[in-house]
Design a protein that fits this description.
This protein is an alpha+beta fold and 494 residues long. The chain has three domains: 12-50 and 67-115; 127-150 and 162-293, no CATH class; 320-352 and 387-493, no CATH class. The protein has 13 helices and 20 strands. It has a six-stranded antiparallel barrel. Strand 1 (12-19) and strand 2 (28-34) form a beta hairpin. Helix 8 (389-397) packs antiparallel against helix 10 (412-429), helix 9 packs parallel to helix 12 and helix 10 packs across helix 11 (437-458). The longest helix is centred in the last third of the chain and has 22 residues, at 437-458. It starts with 11 loop residues before the first strand and ends in an 8-residue tail after the last helix.
Length: 494
């Protein structure tokens, strides 16, 4: 097996020997199968002991309820080290006292399979770099090794054309000691000759490589992949699945006799990300992308995203959740969209006290003086000088480009009022009797869009581009249409 990436949407099967880390002398043959959908299973010809026993008397054992699990299983397969993490036996067949003696059989499921390294667990810091490929990353990169032209004569295409290849230099930025590089991997032109035709082929794929000064853990590598995945999902306004993830094993550099250095050994990670990627599916249409590295250069957007991702993670997680796994019921989407707005407002640290603090304390003390002593603690906890949900929504609407906001939500005050009413009714009564399904759908769309515009604004997206995507993006155009129909006060329609 080479260092070529293993795609998460493809089936992998590896035959090898397997053992528990503390029983390396007991190696059991078996086949590891990855199903292309995030699940790994190990079929053993033999078995690890998964039973619990208690000693009733010398030489007398009693089997107890329950089954053992293993944090780690090691193996070797196709000349590579393999580590399985989060291992649970799902089937064990033992043949003791059987009429025909045959080997035990056991099937073990694993949460993560690392192909190319032995590690003690997710927190074992043995990796020097990570590289991840995500759906639509090549489009988002807004750069390519390819260029093409069509020949013409007298203003008409003459049937000639060229496609050329020119390597693209990696774009690199360092953020808080971590280096992020946007790299391209391409093939030179080759010809695929078939019985009925000849096809010329070239491939170009973009990926992001992450390096840290010190060795890092598998968990850190998974978090780095998630960071990139979320950025591309935000930029493309759709779920962005991880296509593959590779980790470079620290300390595996080698040098040939002629002094030429060889790269570190790479380990493929087979797991189930929030969204697994499809490596050969058609990409997103360019007119459905919020921004690429053409609008926000890679060096700038990575710097801003790394800073904003932690601070605004709660809000971005909820918004991206609507992309990865939208709920079937509009009420659930309402809670998610409004929750994202509230979390974003807190993350931006733009809270303003509705009442000056000194004045608020005086008012609160005067109110508490009228409350019986036994109830005073309860009332004190309920009296807060915090902005209301409507206040938070209005504050968010005031931050992005105002022309874009007015296109999106023509009546900001009415939208904030109706959104707050819907959320409060749903939270307190479990239903929204004052809103139709169509109005709720409009609220979800408008609130989600306002949150997204705020995040894009925080990343530095220009006012002109904000207006453009609201005007031209198919989904945002629909949001504008629904908002103008359902989220405008009646008097505003006259």
């Amino acid at each position: 097996m080479t260092n070529n990436p293993l795609n998460l949407d493809e089936v992998v099967e590896l035959a090898g020997l397997w053992w528990l880390p503390n029983e390396s002398g007991k190696r059991i043959p078996g086949i590891l199968r990855y199903d292309g959908e995030g699940r790994s299973s190990l079929s053993l010809i033999g078995a690890f002991e998964d039973r619990f026993f208690s000693t009733l008397a010398p030489g007398v054992m009693d089997e107890l309820e329950g089954t053992r699990t293993w944090d780690v299983i090691h193996g070797v397969a196709e000349q590579r080290e393999v580590t399985l993490l989060g291992c649970v036996p799902t089937r064990s067949e033992r043949t003791m006292l059987a009429r025909v003696e045959s080997p035990d059989l056991q099937t073990v499921s694993a949460t993560i399979a690392v192909i190319g390294a032995h590690l003690g667990g997710e927190d074992d810091a043995i990796f020097a770099a990570a590289e991840v490929s995500v759906e639509d990353l090549t489009l988002w990169a807004a750069s390519s090794v390819f260029s093409g032209s069509f020949g013409s004569r007298d203003g008409k295409l003459d049937g000639t054309g060229t496609v050329s290849v020119k390597p693209v230099n990696a774009e690199t930025v360092t953020v808080d000691g971590t280096e992020y590089s946007l790299v391209h991997t391409h093939t030179l032109p080759f010809f695929d000759r078939r019985k009925g035709r000849t096809v010329g082929r070239m491939r170009d794929a973009a990926s992001i490589r992450i390096r840290q000064a010190e060795p890092f853990t598998l968990r850190a590598g998974l978090d780095a992949a998630s960071l990139i995945q979320d950025l591309i999902a935000l930029a493309t306004h759709r779920a962005a699945g991880v296509i593959w993830l590779q980790l470079e094993v620290a300390g595996t550099e080698t040098v040939l006799p002629n002094g030429q250095p060889l790269p570190r050994r790479r380990a493929n990670v087979l797991y189930s990300p929030v969204a697994p990627g499809k490596h050969d599916e058609k990409g997103v249409d360019p007119d459905r992308v919020f921004f690429t590295c053409r609008e926000l250069p890679f060096e700038e957007v990575m710097q801003r995203w790394c800073e904003a991702h932690g601070r605004l993670q709660a809000a971005t997680n909820m918004i991206l959740g609507l992309r990865y796994a939208p709920a079937r019921f509009v009420e659930n989407n309402l809670l998610m969209a409004v929750g994202a707005a509230e979390a974003l407002h807190r993350g931006l640290d733009i809270d303003e006290k509705p009442i000056p603090e000194a004045e608020f304390k005086a008012i609160r003390n005067a109110m508490l003086d009228q409350v019986p002593e036994e109830h005073r603690g309860r009332f004190k906890a309920a009296i807060r000088n915090s902005p209301t949900l409507r206040d938070r929504l209005l504050a968010l609407a005031a931050r992005p480009d105002q022309d874009a906001i007015m296109q999106l939500v023509p009546d900001v005050d009415h939208w904030a009022k109706r959104t707050a009413r819907a959320r409060n009714d749903l939270a307190h009564e479990g239903r929204t009797p004052n809103h139709s399904i169509d109005e709720l759908d409009a609220i979800v769309g408008a609130t989600t869009a306002v949150v997204i515009l705020n995040i894009l604004h925080e990343l530095g997206l220009s006012a002109e581009r904000q207006r453009q995507i609201v005007r031209e993006h198919p989904q945002l155009r629909m949001v504008c249409q629904k908002a103008s129909e359902w989220l405008v006060a009646p008097e505003s329609n006259s």
